[in-house]
Amino acid sequence: MNLMANLYASGENIFAVAPMIDWTDRHCRMLHRQFTRRALLYTEMVVADAAIHGKREKILGFDAEEHPVALQLGGSDPSKLAQAAAIGEAMGYKEINLNVGCPSDRVQSGAFGACLMQTPEIVAACIDAMKQAVAIPVTVKCRIGVDDQDTQAALDDLTGRVFAAGADALWVHARKAWLKGLSPKENREIPPLDYDRVYRLKQDNPAKFIGINGGIQSLAEAERHLQHVDGVMVGRAAYQDPLLLLDVDRRIYGEPTVSPTIEGIIDHMCAYSDTHIARGGRLSHVTRHMVGMFHGAPGARRWRQMLSTEANRVDADSSVIRRAYEGIGNAAAEAA
């Protein structure tokens, strides 16, 4: 039994950083891993066809230091998803997650993502195929419903089918998705959150892993949710203010370790950035995920400016990060 299978079966709470398109790439995950050794990290959604036919290192490559890291797949063809899942397992991912929650035009045109809430039998077939293809956990991330669905009936139906097909966990974004009339951004904000619906789902499935996602802004909120469900997944809040992750290991996992130092994190990301540049990358590929690091702190505006401008120069290297961080220290000293 692998790391994630052990974790899902152990009854231990799980804290995860949500898969976010255009955000949770390998550089973002490397940054987040510096704040927490234990949180489960997810890739951006990768469409099954891209995993099968695309440039695998570019699309699926990651550093072993990112573990535990899960691959989120998008699609609705069981055979393709099974093939993509096997590729992900061979590359070293610890979990395969099926996206049943994204409402973007792209997924609607392909009839997957949140559209699959309307065809739970297809979701179950996909899970069954992936479970037969891999030995690592296969999980689902969904909404509580879409459009005019009755969330009680729709979510119960989906839940019963995916667990019967062998799913190891269900992560639920506690909002409906509206497939017509709302943009993906609006679908993350306008439909009201219904945490109680997810709590009831857990009460009705006490032996199954149920995790919650949507609108969670702090570790204090995460701790309150964990009184009702098995896992908490935080998205935009963790991306926009990565320091939120700094105390995850102690507060969520009960580890008596000292939190990482900001200086150590800066040093690591500087070394990582220079290695990425030496391989032909750009500093901005890394620093775009670091812009929110000092949200609300003295000097944060200057930090954002430097990482948004100087880091975009073709010849930029890690010295930009170091100079920006010196500005944080100077601003803090002036404010003291």
TrEMBL record:
Cofactor(s) it depends on: FMN
Residues the record marks as active site: 102
GO function terms (MF aspect): flavin adenine dinucleotide binding; FMN binding; tRNA binding; tRNA-dihydrouridine20 synthase activity
Taxonomy, superkingdom: Bacteria
Annotated binding of FMN, by residue: 72, 141, 173, 213-215, 235-236
Positions bearing the site annotation: Interacts with tRNA: 99, 185, 188, 301, 304
Catalytic reactions of this protein: 5,6-dihydrouridine(20a) in tRNA + NADP(+) = uridine(20a) in tRNA + NADPH + H(+); 5,6-dihydrouridine(20) in tRNA + NADP(+) = uridine(20) in tRNA + NADPH + H(+); 5,6-dihydrouridine(20a) in tRNA + NAD(+) = uridine(20a) in tRNA + NADH + H(+); 5,6-dihydrouridine(20) in tRNA + NAD(+) = uridine(20) in tRNA + NADH + H(+)
UniProt keyword list: Flavoprotein, FMN, NADP, Nucleotide-binding, Oxidoreductase, RNA-binding, tRNA processing, tRNA-binding
CDD domains found in the cross-reference section: DUS_like_FMN
Protein function: Catalyzes the synthesis of 5,6-dihydrouridine (D), a modified base found in the D-loop of most tRNAs, via the reduction of the C5-C6 double bond in target uridines. Specifically modifies U20 and U20a in tRNAs.
Family of the protein in this entry: Belongs to the dus family. Belongs to the Dus family. DusA subfamily.
Protein name: tRNA-dihydrouridine(20/20a) synthase
UniProt organism field: Phyllobacterium pellucidum
